[in-house]
Each structure stands twice: as C-alpha cells, then as structure tokens.
Amino acid sequence: MDRYAAVERELRNAAPHLLLDVVTQALREQYAVQSVELRLADYGMTTLQVVSEAPLAEPVHVHDSPQGRAFGVQEPYVEPRTAPGPLHVHLPVTVRGDRLGVLTVTGPEDGLSRADLAEMQQVCEALGHEILVAERDTDLYLLARRATRLTLAAEMQWQLLPGRSVSRPEFKLGAHLEPAYAIFGDNFDWSVSAHHLTLTVTNGMGTGMEAALLTNLVVSALRNARRAGLGLAGQASLADQAVYAQYRGALHAAVLLLRFDLATGEVEAVDAGSPRMWRQRGRSVESCEFDAQLPLGMFEETEYVTERLRVEPGDRLLIGSDGVYDSASAAGERYGERAIARSLSAHRFLPSEQVPLAVLRDLRDHRGAAPLDDDALVVCLDWFGRQPATGGTSA
C-alpha cells in the first residue's frame, strides 16, 4: 500500500503529459518491469490506440487481442508463455466504471505475484483518475482516442458527454453513439447524487452543426435547471423555454428524462419526444410506454408533467433513439418492432457497458448492406437496488 501511495502522489504532481512516464518509472523500480505501454479505447470502441507523442505501434482490436481481453472482462490478463522470456500482463484502466483503456506491462521472467498484480491494478485506477483530470490541460489522451478525424459536430458531442459508462452499488450504466466519428444530434447525460440518478437522452432535430448546436443548448439548459434544484418537470420546462427563445419553434429536441431514487427504485419520467425505453425483467422484454409530451422548444411555455414507474433489482433498461428503433431492414421491418427485444434477450449475460455496442452490431445486421441514415444512440442500465446493510448510509 505504501508503494501505491507513493505512485499516487507522484501522479498528482506530474505534468499532464508525463503521467505514463511516472507510472513507467515507478513500475520499473518497484516491480522490475521492462516496459510499459498505455492504450486508450477509440471513440468507436473498436480499437485500442497507443498513447504517445509520436505513436509507432499499430492499434489493436478490442475483440481479438490480449489487450482487448483485459479491457472486455475488466480483469488483469497474463499472456500464457510458450517459451522462456518476459511476461506480458494487460491491466484495465477504468474509473468509476468508465472503461478508458489498458496498461500493458512487460514483466520480469520470474513473474509477478497476485499481490503485485493487485497493487498494479490500483496504480492503473490512479492513472485513470489523473488522465481525466489531465485532459483539461493537454490533448495527448484525447488524440489517442481517435482512429480517424472527428467531424466538428461529433467533437462537440463527445466533449459534452459525461463518459461512456458509470458504476455504483445500486446500478451500472453504459452508453454508445454511432456513427462515432460523425454523430451530430443524439446525446446522453447523467448525474449521480447521494440519493438520485438523473439520466437524460436527447435527440436534436436537424443535421450536422445545426443539430449539434441545438443539442448543446438543450443539455446545457437541462444541467443548469438540475443544478438550480428544479424537479424533472421544471428541468424540461426551462430547457423548453431556452430552445424556443433561440429558435422560435423552427427547431426542437426530443428528450427522455428519468430520475431514479437510489434507495427505493422509484422512477420519475418525462417523455418529451422520440427516445424510447424497454425493460427486461427475467426473460421478459417489454416496451415502457409513457404519455407522449411535446418536444422541447416546439411551442412557447409548454408545461410538462412527470409519470412514475418502479424498477426492481435485476431489471435491465434499454433506451434507444429513433435512429435505432425506427431503422428498417431490407424487408421493411422496424428494429424496434421485435428485433430489439431479441437482441436484449441474446445479450442478457453481457455487462451493461457492453450491451449498447452489441445492440448496435445487431442493428447493422438487421439493416444488411444499408448504412445508417441517422444517429443511433443506445443506453443500457442494470438496476441492483440499494442493499439493506447500506440503506442508511450516503453513497
């Protein structure tokens, strides 16, 4: 633990672009490793890209590489040795459930103990925290995440997101957007307090920069209202007024707002447009129907009302934008009619952070050769509930 604390202090004091140098030096001194390599997941979550001022190593695929195995199962993976030589260990770099990448260590020939691996995993967690802080001051880690250039609209949308997954004792949540490098109108946002999870899914009208600017306004207005202490209906109303004041009804945004009570599983909902939700309970999958209310910004001073439902431990919720459930196969079948329920059932054993990508892969198979003609957003939430032993404490 003393070794870990020393590395953590050095990481806090390091220049933002030198975090990997600090970790490399510490692991060499304390565990006799030979080399260290950091890779971050790209925006499409398909490759792991090396972090370097002048990257020389090729990207590796998430789904068929040793690094990808550690990233997928979220556990250290020690490559089997077929001959005498250095040991290769891959350790996930994750912060509060948000999977960032993988740290690869070439270790000593005599191996590493379980205690060593556990300590090195703690170092990876500290490194992940410092990467998120460092991104305020350097582009190094953001550049490592892109396998190709982002459109300006996509750049705006990714910078607006809180992350791609989050984990708490009461729930786990994962989300993904496609096309990752050219997204423009879809967005998701969340905030967790001691007592509540607030989750919003937004689908801004229009294309390109027009949609990105609209969605930025909506998400910023919703955050402003939430941070001012307004309830869910008040958040929708304030954002509605902001959008109408800017566009006078010419543009509007569809939003689904959800607020979960972490202690009870009670959920408040405001359905202001097109994002839809499905609930998987056991082997049963059903659509959660709400009273449709007007999208934000369509008319002046629209009033919104909340509805209520309850989630139970073991429930899985899936939210999709219209680019998902309205997407049609060659035969004309909408993905949301039956295929999305089949996809949920097929992937019921996957963790929530992997479900959005799996559902979007199934969507591509459903469409066949036809490319996506709209943004596609999927959010998956697994609900565990608050255990009685911790029910009286603040998280």
TrEMBL record:
User: What does the record give as EC number?
Assistant: 3.1.3.16
Domain named PPM-type phosphatase is located at: 168-383
- Alphabetical keyword list: Hydrolase
Q: Which InterPro entries match?
A: Bact_Sigma-Reg, PPM-type-like_dom_sf, PPM-type_phosphatase-like_dom
Protein name per the record: PP2C family protein-serine/threonine phosphatase
**A Pfam family assignment:** SpoIIE
What is the superkingdom listed in this entry's lineage?
Bacteria
Q: Which organism is it from?
A: Streptomyces mutomycini
* PANTHER family hit by this protein: STAGE II SPORULATION PROTEIN E, STAGE II SPORULATION PROTEIN E-RELATED
Can you name one GO molecular function term for this protein?
Answer: protein serine/threonine phosphatase activity
Q: What class of enzyme is it?
A: hydrolase
